Amino acid sequence: MVSSLLRRLPKVSPRGLLHAEQRLAERYADLVRLAYLVLPPALGRHRRVLLAHALVQRPLPAAAPGVPAPRAARDDAPPMSRSLYVPVLREVLAVFRRPPLWPGRVPPPRMLLPRLPVVWGLRLSPRAGGADELALSRALSELSATARAAFILLRVERLTEAETRGVLEAAGFGGVEAELRAALDLDAVLDSGAAGILTSEEFDPCTVRARPSDLLRRRRRVHLAGIAVLVALITVVTLVVSDGVPTVPAGAGAHRASRPAPAVDDVVRVASGAWAATSRVDFTAWPARGRRVKDRALLRRALTAWAGDADATRISRSAGTAAGPPLDAPHLLYAGPVGGGTVVLLYDGQRLARYREAAVGAARSLVLARVDDADVTTAAAVALDASGETVRYLLAPWVAESRTRDLMRPDTPARPLAVDGDGLTAPVPVFGAGPGCGSRTVLQLRSSSRIAEHHAFLLAGLGELTAVHLTYTPLPGHGAPARQPREATGPAALLAWARTGCAAGPPRGAGVKAVNAWDFAEQDLPDGAGHGVWTCVRADTWRGPGEVTVALRTGGAGAGGQARIVAGARATGACGRFGQHVVVHTNWRSPKGAWYVLAAGSRAVKGLIVTGDVTAGADGATLAVRAPARARTTVRARLAAGLRPIDLSAGRSG
After folding, report:
1. Number of other residues whose CB lies within 10 A of the CB of residue 451
2. Could you tell me the CA-to-CA distances from 408 to 68, 432, 497 in Å, in that order?
3. Which helix (H) or strand (E) holds 367?
4. 2, 40, 553, 574: which one has the fewest Cβ atoms less than 10 Å from its Cβ?
């Protein structure tokens, strides 16, 4: 295929063609990986694989001797930018560009045109990796295309900053300086194994798995294509026969076409014991429950509402959730009466849809929520009905024990929660109900021993369709490896959440999936103020980006006292898998009325330096220095070679 493409290239000598083909053979896998990682993740893995190969095969004239390089590459860019990186990245950049007045939701023309290679009837995707690969993939998806390209050139291709800048500018990328800084920020918080992860099979579009496409859907499409051809033939014959008959223009009665609602008979119903016989323990393993799972009229109304054909239905979505009807027949999870109405819960592999009809009146509502990466904890409870300051949950079939507990009272035992035969709970107080910080009620659930022994976990309802998974990471051990998040059910975890759950609790209305409280540093406070613990509370959303809040817990505040918020950041990787190195400082007043600057860093910090209105330094991960009230200072951290922390101090971006 490559040879045939090269022979059609104009004004290139045979020797140039041979040289270009040799260069392609040597670097082909690396170039395809570069294109694959820079392309928009929203395209899906199959489409990105094929498009990456097509984009690398197109710009081969630039690799042949005698073909002039672009002006930017000849004049201003460093020598490395005259390699194959520039034409490949220029092709990738063209994918993002839309002509003027081109519809925003329609892919650009370059994405609509068929390209070689073409695959029919198969879905291609790189081999799936583990948790590290998934976390790195999410971190890359939060970057722009320019920053992703810079990161790959720096980490995998080992270009210098100057060479990377030259390649991006020669390829036509804009805002290179800012995006290069974003790539360097991510590079600074990754460990040395990130480059190895990027070269694994998870990110290798030349090592792919082939699976059939949806056979039923493909069969339907073939039938529809046949019908469309038949209709087209009939239309042509009709036009020929009725030649000369004037046509009637479309009037006000014309309306947009929409995808028809799935048929009731196509709805997927999972057997009740499927969750115990699968390695995928998420919403795909939920059985159909409820007294009205056989009510065809009710299910038809719910499916019609999701397809957008019910004008009287009020539709809402959680943050980051795509609109539109299901792409295929959804799973039925529940259908039955709940509270003052009737609820139908559906799942299409990416989203949950809760359809509700009020018992009195004609009020109907549909709520959509993204759940494309749910697991045994985040798929354990769904809010079916909220009334006042209480909510009723539908629990997963693998939940063997259900209780509630108040995060503000860590010493109080959890209370049993009544659950009916369909998995529907009794009313539970809303998280944060009541004035002030009086109560923070959460679910404490335990998985069946067929899933894992003694696996208990906490979920908090924040007014959205899915509950939020609460976890805890303890203080780092001396000389020990970094700790990993764990279930927030132990005494230390409950105490940490009791002290931070009100002041630094999870945000509402942001599509939050999980929240982790990380105790990253501790120190003895001056003037006899006792012991201080620095906690970073990170809220991760279903769409990827997260936000953090840093709190300082002091021993003098009493067992029920709340921590003091000292910093925060939005859309950051800090305090997560790829943001383990952080530093923060704040002004603090001791019980004796004296002002200090306190600073703390994570486990890799070997020393701290404070400058500004006061200058001081100290070895280790914490520092306390006497300072004027409201002193203006900055902090720098000393880490191992090649590491840079994220400064979360007030006024700084994470």
Report:
1. 16
2. 69, 10, 8
3. strand 364-370
4. 2
Helical H runs in 269-399? 296-306
Residues in the chain: 654
Q: Establish whether the linkage from the previous residue to 117 is cis, with ω within 30° of 0.
A: yes
CA-CA distance, 392 to 334, in Å (whole number)? Answer: 13
Residue 360 structure tokens = 């009195």
Strand order in the sheet with 428-429: 381-387, 390-395, 428-429
> 46: which residues sit within 8 A by CB, 6+ positions away?
123, 124, 125
Distance CA(395)–CA(392), nearest Å, equals 10
Answer yes or no: is pLDDT of 20 > 90.
no
Give me the half-sphere count of Cα atoms (radius 13 Å) on the Cβ side of residue 527: 15
CA–CA dist 255, 17 (Å, integer): 54
Alpha carbons within 13 angstroms on the beta-carbon side of residue 432 total: 13
Strands (E), 195-291: 208-212
Tokens representing 201? 């099979």
- For the ranges 18-32, 65-79, 264-278, the one whose mean pLDDT is highest: 264-278
Residue 187 near residue 164, CB atoms below 8 Å: no
Least Cα distance to 644 among 589, 581, 595, 566 occurs for 581
- Say how many C-beta atoms besides its own lie within 10 A of residue 308's C-beta: 17
Average pLDDT, the chain: 80
Cβ partners under 8 Å of residue 473, min gap 6:
483, 484, 485, 486, 516, 517, 518, 519, 520
- Give CA–CA dist 616/633, Å, rounded: 10
Running DSSP on this structure, what letter comes out for residue 157? S
CA atoms within 13 A on the CB side of 367: 20
pLDDT given for residue 193 in this prediction: 61
Q: Which residues contact 344 (CB under 8 A, 6 or more apart)?
A: 298, 299, 302, 332, 334, 335, 354, 355, 356
pLDDT of residue 35: 83
E strands, 348-452, are 351-358, 364-370, 381-387, 390-395, 399-406, 415-416, 428-429, 441-447
- Look up tokens 């290798």; give the residue: 204
**pLDDT value at residue 15:** 58
CA distances from 7 to 21, 26, 55, 196, 293 (A): 10, 19, 17, 36, 62
Q: Quick one: tokens of 311?
A: 């004008």
- Would you state the structure tokens that stand for residue 645, as one six-digit string? 């922390």
First CA to last CA across the chain, in angstroms?
A: 47
Which of 127, 193, 182, 115 has its CA nearest to residue 150? 182
Reading phi first (left if > 0) and then psi (alpha if -120 to 50, else beta), residue 174 is in beta
CA nearest 399: which of 361, 355, 445, 366?
A: 445
DSSP state at residue 257: -
**What is the DSSP code (8-state) at residue 248?**
P
Helical ranges in 76-203 per DSSP H: 85-96, 109-112, 131-141, 145-155, 161-171, 176-189, 194-198
- Cα distances from 381 to residues 350, 394, 451, in angstroms, run 16, 6, 16
pTM over 0.85: no
- Looking at 461-562, which runs of residues are DSSP E strands? 468-473, 486-487, 512-525, 530-541, 546-554
For the stretch 27-63, pLDDT in tens is 788 888 888 888 888 778 788 888 888 888 776 555 4
Counting beta carbons within 10 angstroms of the beta carbon of residue 597, is it exposed (0 to 12), middle (13 to 18) or buried (19 or more)?
A: buried
Q: Which of 262, 344, 255, 369 is nearest to 307 (CA)?
A: 262
